[in-house]
TrEMBL record:
This is PIN domain-containing protein. It holds the Pfam family PIN. GO terms for biological process: rRNA catabolic process. One of its GO terms (molecular function) is RNA endonuclease activity. It comes from the Bacteria. Residues 8-133 form the PIN domain. Coiled coil: none annotated.
Length: 142
């Protein structure tokens, strides 16, 4: 019997699930349902929660949705990865002065958490992770 996959979630996947107008909303829901069926261990870096929450509150202009999303992550059944100094050091493997402005330290922290957790995939729509050698969740749910 195969053990369930371990998946780290990026902010774009959280936003896609929370925002019905996001271009990835339907796909994010499908991937999320597949991960549940696979009994995947889903881990949310604390920074991805904060990053997605700020986006929901500011650009999407929805403090109520931002609050509701934050409340979801206080559920003890939701696994949140703390980001500490070692995680930041690991993130620097993926971050440099020449890193694209689209690939922020937030993304590098997600990659670092995936490293630290020995994750099977990252739930994101960002090809940055593929370029860094990670599988995306969409690849393991097919």
């Amino acid at each position: 019997m195969n053990k369930p996959p371990k998946v780290i979630v990026d902010a774009d996947a959280i936003i896609a699930q929370a925002n019905p107008y996001d271009m990835h909303h339907k796909t994010a829901g499908t991937i999320s349902e597949a991960l549940i069926k696979m009994n995947a261990q889903v881990i949310y870096p604390s920074t991805a929660i904060v990053e997605s929450n700020a986006f929901i509150q500011r650009p999407l202009n929805s403090s109520a949705s931002a609050y509701g999303t934050a409340v979801v992550f206080t559920n003890p059944e939701v696994q949140v990865a703390e980001v500490n100094q070692q995680t930041l050091k690991t993130a620097l493997k993926y971050f440099s002065p020449t890193t694209s402005k689209k690939n922020t330290l937030f993304d590098c922290i997600v990659a670092a958490v995936a490293d630290e957790q020995k994750a099977d995939a990252i739930f994101s729509f960002d090809n940055f992770y593929r370029k860094k050698g990670f599988k995306l969740a969409s690849e393991i749910v097919k």
